[in-house]
Amino acid sequence: MPVLHRNARYNCRIIILNGKIVLIRPKLYLANDGNYREMRWFVGWTRLAQTEDFVLPLFIGRITGQRSVMFGDALISTWDTCVGIELCEELFTPESPHIAMSLDGAEIIVNSSGSHHELRKLKRRVDLITEATLKCGGVYLYANQKGCDGDRLYYDGAAMILANGVVLAMSSQFSIADVDVQVATVDLGAVRAFRAARTSRSMQAARATPYPRAKAECALAVELGDFDNSVRPTDPIAVRYNTPSEEINLGPACWLWDYLRRSGQGGFFLPLSGGLDSCSTALIVHSMCRQVTEACLRGDEQVLKDVRRCVGAGADYVPESAQELAGHLFYTCYMGTENSSTETQERARHLAQTIGSYHVDLRMDSVVTAIVALFVLVTSRTPQYEVRGGSSSENLALQNIQARLRMLLSYLFAALLPWARGRQKSLLVLSSANVDEALRGYFTKYDCSSADLNPIGSISKHDLRKYVAFARDAMELPVLDEFLNAMPSAELVPHSESYTQSDEVEMGMSYAELSEFGRLRKVDGCGPYSMVMHLLHIWGDQLTPREIAQKVRRFFFFYAINRHKMTTITPAYHAETYSPDDNRFDMRPFLYNSSWTWQFQAIDALIERIESAQDQ
Q: What DSSP designation does 337 have?
């Protein structure tokens, strides 16, 4: 909680025992990158292993019976052990406090954390804590926040207890339950034996910086005379990590449910195109309905209360299946035009029937024609598609009319479809733009990628394809074979036997290549020149240096001209470190010099040197 000490605001943990404040522990190292900006609000405590006296506000002092308490970086001494406190980000820093605390005698480290979910991240957390207790010995209690905090992040729980390098207990990584408690029995004698057996650790402990001790008048272990041989230390467990596909299936679904129940809306509306991306979003909502239904059938009173409020049902309503619940909460719509194929229309219809969504199938050609007719009336010029002899400007404008109309229709139907069914609440609109297309800018600004929420906005096409294959088997949905075998296409231009619009052909790069570009740009901090240098090693066996350079130049050209789209991008579930959803904190310009003059000249010179050396 925020605590104002000497007119400086600190992010603190308050340790309370039997109605008394034992210690106020300010955070030492603040998270101030990626998704976090703690330094907007707080300052870190810089006086390591030091404390000060904190005078309590009068109304709190009257409750606790105290006038002042210890404030700062200290350990807590009970009658039989010593407890250290590590806060969230501090675990991930090179000089983690648990090291110095353990050397000064802290046998138990507690960490109340707010660590968000990312694909493949849980193992990193477990490895860090395992390494901490393996090197230092001791018990580590890690509690992590659960649920959606009202923004792009989902906190995935996975509270755990470790001792001397092994995991004793861990909660599920994803759950729609509000509270999850983990319990383990540990032997403090084993901790002491573990540490005493390591001479090098004892040498470092002998010169460790002493910490102030806050006194806690209690004992955590039993007295020898009260020994109960029926209570035995908890055995280690083998940690099972969810696959990325399982994480996609569970994480965004929990996030959507938390957002829905807290927003007070009546459900979700999704433009279902018949493609892989909107299919993935629909599957995530289906997963949400499955988890919610299972919780209702288990008798979870909080979930039942939330469901009844969202669907407007009575106090005795209990959904019997995910499909039944989807019929109340999930609305899908296929918005076809003359450029749409019967294959995508049928795929969308089959999927909607399978998962139970309330589905609408419409053709919007009359609306498209009306808008084009207005332009013709004003200018006396009739735009044509490129395949019919039009220019690229005409072609793009005609495609964007269709794309942007889908956004308008989405919000119209999200507002009124429930009303048409005799219901009062409106719907949250879902988007289905993946992270690769966002980085490349391969979407229309203010099309149906513009929505209230995007469950897949930081997930790569590669991971989404694997997810759909997983869902086909895990949720027994054979209809998904149709989506896996289909070619990605926007279906915004006329198609014929000789031409079919293809996403990867239009982008000039594959989705796999886009994922590589995204990681190098964001995670590794590469610009055009350094990206070519990296890719010469990664792709050198498949592509020539000049081909690699051309692909990088093409990516950065489109990345630059489409930067403005990041200013309006739909809030997306955060699942990848290379996602564009950090635009909230991005201080870079959104108008770039797309010619990249110096960088591209340096790339040309590099390629010429490489080719010259190869010729020799």
A: -
Q: List C-alpha distances in Å: 322 to 159, 286, 319, 339, 424.
A: 28, 7, 7, 33, 22
SS3 308: helix
Residue 454: DSSP 8-state: B
Measure the CA–CA gap between 421 and 416, rounded to whole angstroms.
Answer: 9
> DSSP for 464-492?
HHHHHHHHHHHTT-TTHHHHHTSPP----
The three-point CA angle 93-99-102 to 5° equals 150
What pLDDT score does 486 carry? 81
- Least Cα distance to 396 among 279, 253, 562, 239 occurs for 562
Q: Which long-range contacts (CB under 8 A, 24 or more apart) does 10-15 make?
A: 10/42, 10/43, 10/44, 10/45, 11/38, 11/41, 11/42, 11/87, 13/85, 13/87, 13/112, 15/76, 15/85, 15/214, 15/216
Segment 44-67, tens digit of pLDDT: 999 999 999 999 999 999 999 999
From 9-18, 130-139, 481-490, the region with the lowest mean pLDDT: 481-490
Residue type at 158? A
Local confidence band at 497 (pLDDT 50, 70, 90 cut-offs): low
As a whole number, the mean pLDDT across the chain is 92
Hey, which residues does 83 pair with through a beta bridge? 76, 108
Q: What is the DSSP string of 165-207?
A: TEEEEE--S--S-S---------HHHHHHHHHT-HHHHHHHHT
Listed in sequence order, the residues at least 6 apart from 302 whose beta carbon sits closer than 8 Å to its beta carbon are: 177, 178
Mean pLDDT of 183-191: 94
How many whole angstroms separate alpha carbon 348 and alpha carbon 513?
28
User: What SS3 string covers 245-294?
Assistant: HHHHHHHHHHHHHHHHHHHCCCCEEEECCCCHHHHHHHHHHHHHHHHHHH
> Can you read off the two tokens belonging to residue 497?
């036997």
pLDDT tens, position by position, 285-296? 999 999 999 999
Using CA atoms of 434, 437, 442, 447 in order, give the dihedral in degrees to the nearest 10. 20
Contact 342, 274 (CB under 8 A): no
Residue 176: closest CA among 264, 62, 252: 252
Q: Which two tokens stand for residue 411?
A: 């919000």
Helix, strand, coil percentages (3-state) for the chain, rounded to 5, are: 45, 15, 40
d(C-alpha 68, C-alpha 46), whole Å: 21
Q: Is residue 499 scored above 60 in pLDDT?
A: no
155: its two tokens:
């906190």
Percent of the chain with pLDDT over 90: 75
